[in-house]
Amino acid sequence: MKKIGLSTQIFLGLALGALMGYVVPDLAGHLKPFGDAFLRMIKMIVVPLIFSTLVMGIAGTGDFKKLGRLGGKAIIWFEFATTIALAIGLFVMNVTEPGVGVPISAAVGTEEAAAAGQHSIDMVQYVLHIIPTNVVDAAARQDMLQIIFFACFFGVAVAHIGEKGTLIVNFCQSVAEAMFKVTNYVMHFAPLGVFAMIAYTVGSYGITMLIPLGKLILSVAGATALFIAVVATIASVFTKINFFHLILALKDILFLAFSTASSEAALPGAMKRLHRLGVPEATVTFVMPTGYSFNLDGSTLYSSAGILFIAQLYGIAMPIEQQLLVMVTLMLSTKGIAGVPGAGIIVVAATAAAFNLPTEGVAILLGIDRILDMIRTICNVCGNCMATVVVSCWEKELNKDKFNRLYKEFREEKL
Fold first, then answer.
1. CATH number at residue 109
2. Would you write out the chain's pLDDT as a tens digit for each of its 415 residues?
3. Which of 76, 124, 175, 302 is the 20 to 30 A CA-CA neighbour of 225?
4. 1 assigned to some structural domain
5. CB–CB of 407/252 below 8 Å?
6. Which segments cross the bilayer (predicted)?
7. 301, 220 in Cβ contact below 8 A?
């Protein structure tokens, strides 16, 4: 008998939890401690995982004198695309508001967060607060903004001390790998945690609170389509190559990514297809793997959408200046760990805590994470393929005529 996958188990946990909350709400109300236990396990991973991966990423690429021309151009495009992904995620969520109007804002422990969100923000004090006076205290409080600030400075310093920093980078790599393994362990408790949180939530607030989940899926799908269209248009103008033809040439690869929800499964085929379309192998083999750590646009878009969805779900206002800070935070915290199973949820949980949002909303997101994962995976793969072609054109390795000729040959062969 085939073993049921974790994503299927989580979905079953969502369905059974909703059913139990609807049928026996009194009993479901006693399950909250199990959901809280799962959330606490998620939180315990956050600080060491994000700190170690940030230091690894910055120490490895932060010394721009040692970066090749190819790496520098790739990173510039990665950051440009990531910013667009975050902005579109927030824009679509502000327009569609899938979490607004759900009677869940009276949840225990959210009144204080809602009140905090309603206060006017002193931007000077907010920016000063990002600078930690004691990094150990910041870690103990899980103040993600302060941890990221220190990790960035620390990573740059490690990158500039040469061989002496190798020991620190290796240590951070070992810590990160250990925390990835811990993440895998914790995610095995996800079905029980989702079951308990959904049962408690539906039992307390009614079955109507599940409606926003369908709206969220449609919002994320729409935001992903908009992102791909915007980036393809910008890339087409920049390179004089029709990137919509590139997407058509990759459609079977993108379908594989969507159906498996695995960027890794689509990587070999995507690299081979790009080489077939004229992108030099050296560029493909450098930019694509690098992008899998630094340019997972779908994961960053999902993270921004998830944060705003949790705020809307619990009736917490997030003014534009606070949303801009969310963008900056996610731009850094999603680097290096977005491809790890369960890491997207950890980033959302950490960022939610940093902005005084209830982390209980993370368990609700987990229930539909498989569907959202399929959507963000197709965005990740497409974004990396477009980035590789952009860098190749930027390096003057691929021109319009060459691409059009190879694309025409490819289409004729497929027909």
1. 1.10.3860
2. 456 766 678 778 878 988 998 888 888 878 888 888 887 887 788 788 778 877 876 676 544 454 567 777 888 898 899 889 989 999 999 998 887 876 564 443 444 444 434 444 455 776 787 788 998 888 887 777 688 788 878 888 888 887 888 888 889 888 888 887 887 788 788 888 888 888 887 787 677 767 778 888 899 999 999 999 999 999 999 989 999 999 998 888 888 777 666 676 677 778 888 888 888 877 887 787 777 767 778 888 988 898 999 888 888 888 888 888 888 888 777 665 544 555 667 778 878 877 888 877 787 787 777 778 778 888 988 999 999 999 988 888 888 888 888 888 888 776 5
3. 76
4. no
5. no
6. 37-62, 74-93, 144-161, 189-211, 217-241, 301-320
7. yes
Number of domains in the chain: 1
Nearest CA among 352, 26, 46 for reference residue 202: 26
Residue 326 in any domain: the answer is yes
Structural domain boundaries enclosing 385:
6-414
- Running DSSP on this structure, what letter comes out for residue 131? S
